[in-house]
């Protein structure tokens, strides 16, 4: 009985946000004290598919930025995690990589703003990608550092003694073995970028309108229906991956990477 | 071999630059600006901005408020998660449960804040339900849960976002540390389940997770979107306060924004140094090398 | 002579791990190297394989120094304590790995792998993955993967250490059979006296970085420090007790 109740509470707690957002996205006019909007229709959703809709532009931009950041961060993190893995001070390097997190990306954004202006990177696509990269890269590094274990080096050495060249060993052994964690790293970096508001707002100067910025703008304009749609679009990619890709799990998130 | 060694060294230096240079550069610039040594209105070295910031009651209040919100949120999340792990141990093997617990991790802070706003505000979903059920007779009677003086909305959002992480994390510790076996052992030695919890499970869990909990406190402390949507001007959390000051039209405020940012970073660093012995050791070892 | 070590020395952080080690291994010969953990045996094997560099001394393969040769060009296979099968490759691909690295033709690879699978009695398991194999089966695959490329020298670091007694005995027999069949020279490191005597044509002993090679097994058995005497004493006493 207790278990049942806990289940029920938990399911409500977790699924209610999605339901409320869905309700709002199909709604029109929601005047107090009505529990549900007066009308339900697909008008707001249809706007999304019109060619000049701001949301679809934001969606495209967000996808582009997040993919770039995730790709760049994962690639660099893979290279550098290998280089650092053989260091005596490996653990110290890893602790340093926590720095951008501990110091809050938004506060760093305030500090970086001047440099973005000097380097003419403010309000530009590349500026935002670079700023997000500087946050995602250390995080990716922390994730991928756990890959370069003694065991992996033993396996690699064994492949060398069996006559494999560095390239062959990488192609046949190291890369296939790293694939799951590379996928995880890519996905996590994608999400950090995808979810980011503060840094993009500060470095992009409001000019680089990603989906998260759209949500904010709609809320400011008190257009909760559009805000709800933009929110659902933000939820879509991670939810999709969660339900269709069994391999990628959030097991190593910020909390249990060390 | 030698070439490879040099190459590795070089890459390590590049790594340090990638990690430290942006942070240090920002840090240095903020330091110079806050002492009046650079910037649009710079008039040469002055302690004015620092004395103003350090004696600004509201700046300290913001830091204290942020710390309080973070600690309460992490504390509540921890107990919810622990409760779930203890009561629903077997459910974690079930696919539906596993997926369910991951769902909140798909929520950006902005979206979760929007949800809380639409659900818990005076004109929100729950307020309307309460009205229809006759619990309240006007919109004003619904308690203030968002943009409130105690940061309830912010804490609610933080808990909703943090507790799934903790649940998965605590469950992992339970499995990795074989806590169930220790519990059985303790009970076979005659301890009651309550004694087992306080003397065995909780201490082991605490030892393993305290660094993570601290990281999360810092993490929540630095949150920006959530207090921006669900907070108010006074008390205000520190991050939106810094950004507010930095982006004001009044140029006089900018040096203070930088001073405040540095003050916040200082508090965070002190927090880490005090809480984590391993960090202290880390800096000791570094200075030896 | 197949392999020759001359005055190999190595230290880690000023602590000597190997002190002028000399060793000669002939063609088709197996030398058992007896050593406890921390005796320097793993370092010795790693230096021969090229995974570590000695501080001084030289390693000769077929009378040529190989010290500056890359690991993958030495034709010396090092078998670790664990089987270390590539977890993402099935049994067939694990065994074929070395041949694929040498770009041997696919049809030839197939026939050679099939032949060796028969030898190790795992023909039915060729498409299984390492996770589906028992400890003994894994070791057999690891062993086949090494000898299929007919290495100049095979280095084995306690390969049967983790197996149960029965599997271990079977593996020892299989090892002896295949090593003769493929004409392989090998250094076999173990801490087990019986195993050393059973497998090696010759015995060497490594202790605190010093290596001593015995002329023949008789020399070894008669050496008071070999440990054989204690072993015999033990069994005699047990008998007297009864």
TrEMBL record, chain A:
It is a multi-pass membrane protein. Keywords: Cell inner membrane, Cell membrane, Membrane, Transmembrane, Transmembrane helix, Transport. The chain crosses the membrane at residues 59-84, 96-115, 121-144, 181-204, 224-244. One of its GO terms (cellular component) is plasma membrane. Its main location: membrane. This is Putative spermidine/putrescine transport system permease protein. SUPFAM superfamilies: MetI-like.
From TrEMBL, chain B:
Keywords: Cell membrane, Membrane, Transmembrane, Transmembrane helix, Transport. Belongs to the binding-protein-dependent transport system permease family. This is Putative spermidine/putrescine transport system permease protein. It is found in: Cell membrane. It is a multi-pass membrane protein. Residues 63-275 form the ABC transmembrane type-1 domain. GO terms for biological process: transmembrane transport. It comes from the Bacteria. PANTHER family: MOLYBDENUM TRANSPORT SYSTEM PERMEASE PROTEIN MODB (PTHR30183). PROSITE patterns: ABC_TM1. The chain crosses the membrane at residues 12-37, 57-84, 96-117, 149-170, 211-230, 257-283. One of its GO terms (cellular component) is plasma membrane. It comes from Psychroflexus halocasei. InterPro entries: MetI-like, MetI-like_sf. CDD domains: TM_PBP2.
UniProtKB/TrEMBL annotation, chain C:
InterPro entries: AAA+_ATPase (IPR003593), ABC_SmlMolc_Importer (IPR050093), ABC_transporter-like_ATP-bd (IPR003439), ABC_transporter-like_CS (IPR017871), ABC_transpr_FbpC (IPR015853), P-loop_NTPase (IPR027417). Signal peptide: none annotated. It comes from Psychroflexus halocasei. This is Putrescine transport system ATP-binding protein. One of its GO terms (cellular component) is membrane. The keyword Nucleotide-binding applies. The keyword Lipid biosynthesis does not apply. One of its GO terms (molecular function) is ATP hydrolysis activity. GO terms for biological process: quaternary ammonium group transport. SMART domains: AAA. PANTHER family: SPERMIDINE/PUTRESCINE IMPORT ATP-BINDING PROTEIN POTA, SPERMIDINE_PUTRESCINE IMPORT ATP-BINDING PROTEIN POTA. Keywords: ATP-binding, Cell membrane, Ion transport, Iron, Iron transport, Membrane, Nucleotide-binding, Transport. Residues 3-233 form the ABC transporter domain. It comes from the Bacteria. Gene3D superfamilies: P-loop containing nucleotide triphosphate hydrolases.
């Amino acid at each position: 009985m207790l278990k049942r109740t806990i289940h029920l509470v938990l399911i409500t707690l977790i699924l209610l946000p999605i339901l409320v957002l869905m309700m709002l996205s199909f709604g029109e006019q929601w005047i107090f004290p009505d529990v549900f909007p007066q009308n339900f229709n697909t008008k707001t959703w249809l706007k999304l598919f019109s060619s000049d809709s701001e949301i679809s532009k934001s969606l495209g931009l967000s996808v582009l930025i997040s993919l770039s950041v995730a790709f760049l961060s994962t690639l660099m993190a893979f290279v550098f995690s290998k280089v650092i893995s053989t260091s005596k001070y490996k653990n110290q390097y890893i602790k340093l990589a926590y720095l951008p997190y501990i110091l809050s990306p938004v506060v760093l954004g305030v500090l970086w703003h001047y440099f973005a202006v000097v380097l003419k990177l403010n309000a530009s696509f590349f500026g935002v990608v670079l700023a997000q990269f500087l946050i995602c890269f250390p995080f990716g590094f922390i994730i991928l550092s756990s890959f370069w274990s003694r065991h992996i080096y033993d396996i690699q050495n064994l492949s060398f003694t069996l006559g494999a060249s560095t390239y062959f060993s990488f192609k046949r052994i190291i890369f296939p073995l790293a694939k799951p964690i590379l996928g995880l790293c890519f996905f996590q970096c994608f999400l950090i970028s995808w979810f980011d508001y503060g840094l993009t707002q500060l470095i992009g100067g409001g000019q680089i309108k990603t989906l998260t910025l759209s949500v904010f703008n709609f809320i400011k304009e008190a257009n909760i229906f559009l805000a709800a749609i933009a929110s659902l679009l933000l939820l879509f990619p991670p939810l999709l991956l969660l339900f269709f890709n069994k391999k990628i799990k959030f097991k190593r998130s910020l909390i249990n990477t060390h | 071999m030698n070439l490879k060694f040099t190459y590795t060294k070089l890459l390590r230096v590049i790594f340090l630059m990638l990690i430290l240079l942006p942070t240090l550069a920002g840090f240095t610039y903020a330091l110079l600006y806050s002492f009046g040594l650079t910037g649009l209105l710079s008039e040469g070295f002055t302690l004015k901005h620092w004395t103003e910031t350090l004696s600004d009651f509201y700046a300290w209040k913001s830091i204290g408020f942020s710390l309080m919100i973070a600690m309460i949120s992490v504390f509540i999340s921890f107990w919810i998660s622990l409760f779930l792990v203890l009561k629903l141990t077997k459910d974690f093997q079930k696919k539906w449960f596993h997926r369910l617990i991951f769902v909140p991790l798909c929520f950006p802070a902005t979206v979760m804040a929007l949800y809380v706003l639409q659900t818990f505000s005076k004109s929100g979903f729950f307020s309307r339900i309460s009205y229809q059920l006759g619990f309240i007779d006007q919109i004003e009677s619904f308690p203030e849960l968002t943009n409130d003086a105690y940061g309830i909305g912010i804490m609610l959002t933080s808990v909703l976002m943090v507790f799934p992480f903790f649940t998965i994390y605590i469950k992992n510790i339970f499995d990795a540390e074989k806590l169930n076996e220790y519990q059985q052992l303790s009970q076979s030695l005659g301890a009651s389940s309550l004694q087992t919890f306080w003397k065995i499970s909780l201490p082991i869990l605490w030892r393993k997770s305290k660094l993570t909990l601290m990281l999360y406190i810092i993490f929540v402390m630095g949150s920006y979107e959530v207090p921006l949507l669900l907070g108010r001007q006074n008390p205000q959390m520190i991050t939106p306060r810094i950004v507010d000051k930095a982006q004001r039209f009044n140029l006089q405020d900018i040096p203070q924004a930088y001073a405040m940012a540095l003050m916040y970073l200082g508090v965070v660093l002190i927090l880490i140094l005090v809480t984590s012995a391993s960090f202290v050791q880390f800096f000791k070892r570094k200075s030896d090398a | 002579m197949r392999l020759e070590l001359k005055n190999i020395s190595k230290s880690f952080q000023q602590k000597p791990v190997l002190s002028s080690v000399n060793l000669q291994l002939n063609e088709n010969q197996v030398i058992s190297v007896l050593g406890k953990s921390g005796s320097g045996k793993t370092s010795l094997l790693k230096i021969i394989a090229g995974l570590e560099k000695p501080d001084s001394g030289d390693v000769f393969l077929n009378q040529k120094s190989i010290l500056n040769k890359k690991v993958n060009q030495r034709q010396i296979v090092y078998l670790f304590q664990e089987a270390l099968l590539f977890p993402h490759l099935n049994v067939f691909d694990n065994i074929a790995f070395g041949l694929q690295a040498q770009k041997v033709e696919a049809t030839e690879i197939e026939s050679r792998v099939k032949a060796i699978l028969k030898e190790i009695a795992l023909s039915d398991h060729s498409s299984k993955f390492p996770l589906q194999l028992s400890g003994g089966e894994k070791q057999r695959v690891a062993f086949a993967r090494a000898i299929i490329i007919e290495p100049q020298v095979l280095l084995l670091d306690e390969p049967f250490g983790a197996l149960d007694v029965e599997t271990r005995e079977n593996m020892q027999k299989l090892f002896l059979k295949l090593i003769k069949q493929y004409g392989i020279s090998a250094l076999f490191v173990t801490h087990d006296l019986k195993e050393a005597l059973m497998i090696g044509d010759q015995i060497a002993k490594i202790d605190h970085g010093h290596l001593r090679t015995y002329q023949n097994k008789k020399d070894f058995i008669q050496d008071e420090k070999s440990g054989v005497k204690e072993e015999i004493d033990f069994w005699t006493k047990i008998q007297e007790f009864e």
